[in-house]
Each structure stands twice: as C-alpha cells, then as structure tokens.
Amino acid sequence: MKKIVISEGGSLSINRRGQLKQQTCRFNNGHAEPRCGDTCPLFGEPVEHEAETVVINLCYRQLVCDTADFEDERPVIEEEP
Asked: How many domains does the chain have?
C-alpha cells in the first residue's frame, strides 16, 4: 500500500500513481458528506502494530501501510482528567 493521509479535517486520502487522492464513500447514497473520513461511524482509528505498520478499519475494507507511509494530520485533543 502506498502513502495514506488523514487530513486535518478527517478526510482519507491515498497516494495513487504519485498523487494523493481524496477518497469518496461508495455507500453514502446521496448523503451530504460524500468523502471517506472520520465523520463516519465505520471509520476506525488508526492502530499501530509493532511500530512497523498502521491498520485502519473501514466499513468493508482494512487499509495497511508501513508506519513511515502514514500521516495523521488531525489535531490531537487532550482529554480532561
């Protein structure tokens, strides 16, 4: 798998033939939010495995890439104690 990026706004993009392309949801059925991203309840949080790979569970797919090829640009929000 090539580079995977989650934008600051939560949109999923995948490097295809040298260009980052924002992914759209093929299951949205005309809803206002056509993009694939973290606003979807089926969009899993990225999980790092053994510091080598990152896995993101989606509605009907699982994306896996090397840790070096993953970027999460979303701001980190600190939880209150």
From this structure: 1
Report the predicted TM-score, pTM, of the whole model to 2 decimal places: 0.84
Q: Is 14 domain-assigned?
A: yes
Amino acid code (one letter) for 21: K
Structural domain that includes position 34:
4-72
Amino acid letter for position 6: I
Cα separation, 46 vs 44, in Å, equals 6
How does pLDDT run across 8-59, given as a tens digit for each residue? 999 999 999 889 999 988 777 666 667 899 988 899 999 999 889 999 999 8
Is residue 48 situated within a structural domain?
yes
Q: Quick check: 37 and 28 in contact, CB under 8 A? A: no
Q: What's the rounded Cα separation, in Å, for the pair 4 and 21?
A: 10
In a domain, 54, yes or no: yes
